[in-house]
Amino acid sequence: MPDPSRPIRTAAVIPAAGRGVRLGPGAPKALRTLGGTPMLVHAVRAMAASRAVSLVVVVAPPDGAPEVRALLDEHSFGRAELLVVPGGETRQESVRRGLDALPDDVDVVLVHDAARPLVPVDTVDAVIAAVRSGAPAVVPALPLADTVKRVEPRPKGEAEPVTGTPERALLRAVQTPQGFDRETLLKAHDTVVEGEGATDDAGLVERLGAPVVVVPGHEEAFKVTRPLDLVLAEAVLARRRATDGYV
């Protein structure tokens, strides 16, 4: 348990070791530019914008940590300390390497997708506040706008039979940063084997049987996965620069 006599310290881990093939050929997804600046830089700034975040750990491609460090050193991130560590072959392995790099005095951990470069600071702060209030795991999420169908998978291109329609009011589209009590997240990574049905860190915690709670997400915290997402992100960034003085 954290020492109640000292301030609660929060750090963010950003896994950025993936290739992002759905965006097409070129640099790894996190290093694609958005408004002339790599998405990874925007993502680090989004975490560092929270006054509660004192450390950001970027998990780079396994053979690219020096290059990522040099890239980040070209930019300013305010008061937050920055570490860069090499990642692993999978996302879970990369997140674990980021966790291993955290100092002992970190109590709250955020895990944030580098491909969500425009998450507002209010969303980051809401996640942190919920963890500090006692939730072991917190995810920002939005209600679904579309009806969702459960199907029986078929080979690509074939028609798939519908097997059910989940009640949309009970579903949420999950975003990041996801926030955790550090010890809970470490236990999840130590306990749950990759590939056991969890597709995010909150899913690992769920597999432990620990509670996960949802706080409101934001429509601008979308994930840049496909070329059309990049077009939308450029439009959001242009609007911010015109109205908010965003850099």
How are the SSEs ordered, and which strands pair?
Elements: E1 9-15, E2 33-34, E3 37-38, H1 39-48, E4 53-60, H2 65-72, E5 81-86, H3 91-100, E6 106-111, H4 121-132, E7 137-143, E8 150-151, E9 162-164, E10 172-174, E11 178-181, H5 182-191, H6 201-208, E12 213-216, H7 227-243
Parallel strand pairs: 1-4, 1-6, 4-5, 7-12
Antiparallel strand pairs: 2-3, 6-11, 7-10, 7-11, 8-9
Helix pairs in contact: 5-6
What can you see in these coordinates?
The chain is of the alpha/beta class. It is built from seven helices and twelve strands. The strands form three sheets. Strands 1, 4, 5, 6, 7, 10, 11 and 12 form an eight-stranded mixed sheet that branches. A two-stranded antiparallel ribbon has the order 2-3. A hairpin with a 2-residue loop joins strand 2 and strand 3 (about 35-40). Helix 5 packs across helix 6 (about 200-210). The N and C termini lie far apart (about 40 Å).
List keywords for this structure.
Spore Coat Polysaccharide Biosynthesis Protein SpsA, Chain A, 7 helices, 247 residues, 8-stranded mixed β-sheet, alpha/beta, single chain, 12 strands
Estimated radius of gyration: 18 Å
Classify the helix fraction into a percent range.
Answer: 25-40%
Instruction: Provide the succession of SSEs.
Output: EEEHEHEHEHEEEEEHHEH
CATH superfamily: Spore Coat Polysaccharide Biosynthesis Protein SpsA, Chain A
Helix/strand structural class: alpha/beta
Helix run count: 7
The CATH topology comes to Spore Coat Polysaccharide Biosynthesis Protein SpsA, Chain A
Whole-number total of structural domains: 1
Q: What is the CATH level 1 assignment?
A: Alpha Beta
Average of per-residue pLDDT values: 91
The percent range for strand residues is: 15-25%
Poorly predicted sequence stretches spanning 5 or more consecutive residues:
21-25
Number of DSSP strands?
12
CATH architecture classification: Alpha-Beta Complex
Gap between N and C termini, in Å? 39 Å
**Major sheet characteristics:** 8 strands, mixed
General form: globular
